[in-house]
């Protein structure tokens, strides 16, 4: 087990280098450049531009720039934003906690609502309850998140007045509730369907019949024998979902004005701030890797037939 | 042995006084399944009874209704699609079909227990065997986790699983097939039930282990004086352990007999066909007999005797009239206890 975890952690190093290289080269290949973006609509003085580029090292060949970035990174230096002159590390430190909070909020909602709904539907397959939940799930999957976001704003903020339409203070949990639910809505449908299918399938399993034949009360048959076996596919999905919830919140963060990672990456992309994009995306890659490691370890907890050596 | 300790809500083995009143009596039981292709009539009027300490073997092909009737006794048929339109299942004189779900749940596992065919799929793969055994004591007797575990170890010792103490926390996949079936048996025995239903308990095992498991089951049955319903399609298994046999075909009992009577002189052409299709060493080199045709589709059971399309003796009457279970008698008219045959031509079959 310990060796397995160590091996998995070591595997993250090449993935880390590979992903920084890929994103760095993509940023390099994009048209436009960050220094010209500084001038906006003003007249651009080529001499001045060249001077700034030289100071920033942007006139160097690609491999040299990448090497400089990597060596900086290993010394804990994420680089500096060109426009704002702020260290990228500070930008990340501002945006990440907000997004983590939003994502965790969404995740809790996903688990607390999606799994019970799936179990309810799965226990009564092909009944009115099941079909209603299927319909709602399909609806949520098909509606784009910005439509859902504006709709939620309209209903809960403008009509009912339960909450602010926009997030004024990204550290305020109450204000993050609505965007978190909108963010979770799409995945909620998947979690519900996945749980439902898994539960409905295991309901016919021999060991469930044994549990009933043992004279166990219904809540115990479901809670102890059925649900735990049904959670394995759901846990896989939820693990990947942690990463998606963090990285995929660009639209939702935009709709609700949340100052999180999604917005920061989006703005950095527009201004061609290479180091900001690479820094944040690499961190997200690491979050994905860590989440998938946790999922793999959780498998072994849920299913004793899986053992890592 | 602590296993024999009597607790308030679980009565111990029966005294000798009530040995002749039936423990379980199934009367005119019907079970049907409502499917998209129509109503499948799985069980069509089954009668049987089991006394304490007695072993009834229910014999039949797949689809003959032998498992479904047992599941109806256990109360583990999914309803819907299953339905019990008619019949009574009397356990110690009380009709279980009229009981509340909660009353039935208390009987399941504690008074009537079941052993399933494939122990690998019938045991929960993600829970340790100790937990699954201990659950019986925790749910039915309210024991603590610790007490339940101690009881589980005793049970595992009882069914002769080596190193029970070390293995109590192992999972089902870590045991061999024979050991897993022993765990199933231990689970069924846990609360010393009055009746055990074993649904093809040895089918999934290899032949050497089959005998060990059957011997163990028979020994424990004698010791606790339990009634046993043994469901099987294996005539070899039946001969050694059963007291009486009920042969089922298309949801009906076609022949009943004390075990050795049945082997000596079957009174139904179907039973004769089954016995003739056992490979025999003294007929080596000859072609093995097989009953021609297939078991009927349960949504369209043939009129008259369900066996008529496959029967070598079938006559016009077999296609129109459903035979009742005739009392089988000696040639001179003397009664043979416990023998019955649902064949219009039983006389010719047994004496002819």
From TrEMBL, chain A:
It is found in: Cell membrane. CDD domains: TM_PBP2. Residues 96-299 form the ABC transmembrane type-1 domain. The chain crosses the membrane at residues 12-30, 102-121, 133-156, 176-194, 234-256, 276-302. Keywords: Cell membrane, Membrane, Transmembrane, Transmembrane helix, Transport. Its main location: membrane. It comes from the Bacteria. Belongs to the binding-protein-dependent transport system permease family. This is ABC transporter permease. It is a multi-pass membrane protein. It comes from Streptomyces solicavernae.
Automatic annotation (TrEMBL), chain B:
Residues 1-22 are annotated as: Disordered. Its main location: membrane. Keywords: ATP-binding, Cell membrane, Membrane, Nucleotide-binding, Transport. It comes from the Bacteria. It is a peripheral membrane protein. Residues 24-275 form the ABC transporter domain. It holds the Pfam family ABC_tran. SUPFAM superfamilies: P-loop containing nucleoside triphosphate hydrolases. It is found in: Cell membrane. GO terms for molecular function: ATP binding. InterPro entries: AAA+_ATPase (IPR003593), ABC_Ni/Peptide_Import (IPR050388), ABC_transporter-like_ATP-bd (IPR003439), ABC_transporter-like_CS (IPR017871), Oligopep_ABC_C (IPR013563), P-loop_NTPase (IPR027417). PANTHER family: DIPEPTIDE TRANSPORT ATP-BINDING PROTEIN DPPD, OLIGOPEPTIDE TRANSPORT ATP-BINDING PROTEIN APPD. Belongs to the ABC transporter superfamily. NCBIfam families: oligo_HPY. This is ABC transporter ATP-binding protein. It comes from Streptomyces solicavernae.
């Amino acid at each position: 087990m310990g060796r397995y975890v160590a091996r998995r952690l070591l595997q993250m190093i090449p993935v880390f280098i590979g992903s920084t290289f890929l994103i760095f080269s993509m940023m390099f290949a994009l048209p436009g450049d960050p220094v010209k973006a500084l001038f906006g609509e003003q007249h651009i003085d080529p001499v001045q531009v060249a001077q700034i580029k030289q100071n920033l090292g942007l006139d160097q060949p690609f491999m040299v720039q990448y090497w400089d970035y990597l060596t900086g990174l290993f010394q804990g230096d994420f680089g500096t934003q060109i426009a704002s002159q702020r260290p990228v590390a500070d930008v990340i430190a501002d945006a990440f906690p907000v997004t983590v909070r939003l994502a965790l909020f969404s995740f809790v909602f996903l688990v607390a609502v999606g799994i019970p709904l799936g179990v309810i539907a799965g226990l009564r397959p092909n009944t009115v309850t099941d079909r209603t939940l299927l319909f709602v799930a399909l609806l949520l999957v098909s509606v784009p998140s910005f439509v859902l976001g504006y709709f939620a704003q309209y209903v809960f903020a403008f009509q009912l007045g339960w909450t602010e339409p926009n997030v004024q203070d990204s550290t305020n949990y109450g204000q993050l509730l609505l965007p978190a639910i909108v963010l979770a809505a799409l995945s909620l449908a998947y979690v519900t369907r996945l749980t439902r299918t898994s539960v409905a399938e295991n309901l016919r399993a021999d060991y469930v019949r044994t549990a009933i034949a043992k004279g166990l009360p219904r809540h115990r048959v479901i809670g102890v024998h059925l649900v735990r076996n049904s959670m394995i596919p759901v846990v896989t999905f939820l693990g990947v979902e942690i990463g998606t919830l963090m990285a995929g919140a660009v639209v939702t963060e935009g709709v609700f004005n949340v100052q999180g990672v999604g917005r920061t990456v989006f703005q950095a992309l527009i201004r061609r701030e290479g180091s900001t994009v690479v820094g944040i995306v690499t961190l997200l890659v690491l979050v994905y890797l860590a989440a998938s490691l946790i999922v793999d370890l959780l498998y072994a907890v849920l299913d004793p037939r899986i053992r890592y050596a | 042995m602590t296993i024999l300790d009597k607790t308030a809500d679980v009565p111990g083995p029966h005294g000798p006084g009530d040995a002749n009143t039936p423990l379980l009596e199934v009367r005119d039981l019907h079970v049907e399944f409502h499917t998209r292709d129509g109503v499948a009539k799985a069980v069509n009027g089954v009668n049987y009874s089991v006394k304490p300490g007695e072993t009834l073997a229910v014999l039949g092909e797949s689809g003959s209704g032998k498992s479904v009737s047992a599941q109806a006794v256990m109360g583990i048929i999914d309803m819907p699609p299953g339905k019990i339109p008619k019949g009574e299942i009397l356990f110690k004189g009380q009709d279980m079909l009229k009981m509340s779900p909660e009353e039935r749940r208390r009987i399941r596992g504690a008074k009537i227990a079941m052993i399933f065919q494939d122990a690998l799929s019938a045991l929960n793969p993600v829970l340790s065997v100790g937990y699954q055994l201990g659950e019986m004591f925790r749910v039915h007797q309210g024991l603590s986790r610790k007490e339940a575990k101690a009881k589980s170890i005793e049970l595992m010792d009882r069914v002769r699983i080596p190193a029970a103490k070390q293995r109590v926390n192992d999972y089902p996949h870590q045991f061999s097939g024979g050991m897993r079936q022993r765990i199933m048996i231990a689970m069924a025995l846990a609360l010393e039930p009055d009746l055990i239903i074993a649904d093809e308990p040895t089918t999934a095992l290899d032949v050497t282990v089959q005998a060990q498991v059957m011997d163990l089951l028979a020994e424990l049955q004698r010791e606790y004086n339990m009634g046993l319903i043994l469901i099987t399609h294996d005539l070899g298994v039946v001969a050694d352990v059963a007291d009486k046999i009920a042969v089922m075909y298309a949801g009906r009992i076609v022949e009943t007999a004390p075990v050795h009577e049945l082997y000596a002189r079957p009174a139904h052409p179907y039973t004769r066909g089954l016995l003739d299709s056992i490979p025999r060493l003294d007929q080596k080199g000859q072609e093995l007999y097989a009953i021609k045709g297939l078991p009927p589709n349960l949504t369209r059971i043939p009129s008259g005797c369900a066996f008529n399309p496959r029967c070598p003796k079938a006559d016009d009457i077999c296609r129109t009239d459903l035979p009742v279970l005739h009392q089988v008698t000696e040639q001179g008219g003397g009664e043979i206890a416990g023998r019955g045959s649902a064949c219009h031509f039983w006389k010719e079959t047994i004496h002819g």
